[in-house]
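Quick one, tokens below:
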């Protein structure tokens, strides 16, 4: 099993949806990704928190088997984000952002971190993502996520980053904005031309597209009747996806990519069942595998039964 180095934000979130609200709950791209991926692989987390970061979250990370030597405690307060969701959960309205210690986040990797075979660069400044990547010593696989803020403010840096990663995760709005193309498939194909071998377009409740070479693989979302909180679902998708790849990171094999997408999809479906990371914290491997099998069975079609 290849360990994964996850670099990104660790935050405290306050979120309100039609199902309720949470205050100062665990959040951040690296938190969601690491917890999700830890159900399938060994994870080393690199991030920064303030002196106010609750000890219970550290203990929970440790219980999940996440290695925390790279989680720095800086003088000041932890990064905080507050938001609310529309009725259909497709868009978050940011109410408050306080970068706090995250504003000066500049990770210096240990030798152990530098030698990790798989690197996941969470949604942070693309220049910082490239700085982290420059410290690595020949990883087998590099994946990165980004967001509209960086696409709008630092598009040249984002485009440069794409030439240095193997897998790019973006949502459909980000993919279209970055590529300057008004369709998901067209955007994915354009982004492949910029360097990555795989582009994963996350479509929320509508699933995901996985583009590689001349192939586009569509995957629906796992059907959910109720959603409590969609915060972090995309990061959990990435964690499930990369965790599944950790045992065999050969992304030239389409079977590996399809299997990874199945686990990313079902991981995200668990995450939305409760606020913050609550559901992922209690998720067992048996539960994950059972839902993955159910999801695959829902996709199965017997075309031989169609009359000629």
């Amino acid at each position: 099993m290849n360990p994964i180095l996850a670099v990104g934000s660790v935050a405290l979130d306050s979120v309100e949806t039609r199902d309720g609200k949470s205050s100062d709950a665990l959040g951040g791209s690296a938190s969601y990704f690491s917890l999700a991926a830890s159900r399938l692989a060994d994870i080393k987390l690199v991030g920064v928190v303030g002196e106010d970061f609750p000890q219970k979250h550290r203990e929970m990370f440790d219980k999940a088997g996440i290695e925390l030597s790279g989680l720095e405690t800086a003088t000041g307060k932890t990064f905080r984000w507050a938001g609310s969701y529309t009725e259909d959960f497709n868009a978050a309205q940011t109410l408050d952002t306080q970068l706090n210690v995250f504003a000066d986040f500049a990770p210096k990797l240990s030798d152990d971190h530098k030698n990790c075979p798989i690197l996941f660069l969470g949604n942070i400044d693309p220049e910082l993502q490239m700085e982290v990547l420059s410290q690595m010593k020949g990883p087998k696989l590099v994946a990165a996520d980004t967001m509209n803020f960086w696409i709008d403010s630092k598009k040249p840096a984002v485009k440069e980053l794409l030439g240095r990663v193997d897998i790019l995760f973006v949502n459909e709005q980000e993919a279209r904005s970055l590529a300057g193309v008004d369709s998901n498939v067209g955007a994915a194909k354009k982004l492949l031309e910029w360097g990555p071998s795989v582009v994963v377009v996350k479509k929320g409740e509508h699933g995901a597209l996985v583009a590689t070479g001349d192939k586009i693989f569509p995957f629906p979302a796992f059907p959910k009747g109720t959603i409590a909180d969609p915060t972090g679902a995309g990061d959990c998708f990435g964690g499930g996806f990369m965790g599944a790849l950790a045992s065999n990171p050969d992304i030239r094999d389409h079977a590996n990519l399809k299997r990874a997408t199945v686990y990313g999809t079902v991981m995200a479906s668990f995450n939305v069942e409760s606020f913050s990371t609550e559901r992922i914290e209690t998720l067992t491997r048996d539960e994950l595998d059972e839902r993955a099998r159910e999801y695959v069975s829902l996709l199965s079609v017997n075309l031989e039964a169609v009359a000629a």
